[in-house]
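Meet today's protein:

…
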Amino acid sequence: MSAEALKGSTAATNFDPGLNIRFLKDVMDFEYGPGVFGPRPEYRSLDAIRPSLREPNCTGPDPVYSIAMDVGRAEDREELHRRMLLFGIVMYAKGRLGSEPVRSQGHVHAIAPHCGWSTPELFEIWEGRAIVYGQQKSGDDPGLCIAIEVGPGERVVMPPMWAHYVVNAAPNSVLVFGAWCDRQYGFDYVQMRAHHGLAWFPRMADDGEIGWEANPTYLSSKLEQRKARSHPELGLSATMPIYEQFRHNPDSVQWVSDPARLAELWARFKP
């Protein structure tokens, strides 16, 4: 899948997420406007993610990305806590990590104590182009493996227990996205580290085209590649930003922190 193909997506190139936030790209920081709260970001260094990369000794941007967890409008703070919902924003650097595009290392969501589930996550791309990769299982057999192309205003839902990472698919641009998470979120890296990454590595050619290489530490698997889809089965609007969906109808994203309400759906759900 090439950078040019990603540019041809039907998603809007200018997307308003409904939160007054400036992206300070030179320093990978966020500036919150009036009425919006949020922390200073945490930065993920290249050294921190090396064990998951195809070329652990590669060069690349450092820090690789910044992340600010617990962002929102001031008047929503109490409701967010009551519902155990957490909104995060992430910015990825330009460039590449050796032969790979800039990406996160990959993880499974740990069991959240309040609900007893590995909770799902709802991603929404704000700026740039992404690929969200997910695999159904994190042991030797990865099960279903899917790579989803996502542009501004498009979403991906990663279901409970799926291992996943996000790729910056346009090396000359930063990637910015928002995500709904559980307030007691945690990351499980055990199987990812045991396998030196997830089951498929993204490879970026000189012309920006992204291909895929299987990680030989897993059993054989096939990779499905496709574009983002809508999620009416989850009660999500196809057009309303995901933070605005919470403000309009908090129950529309409550399954993020209460996945048991959709237990039957998760058993057959594909991102």
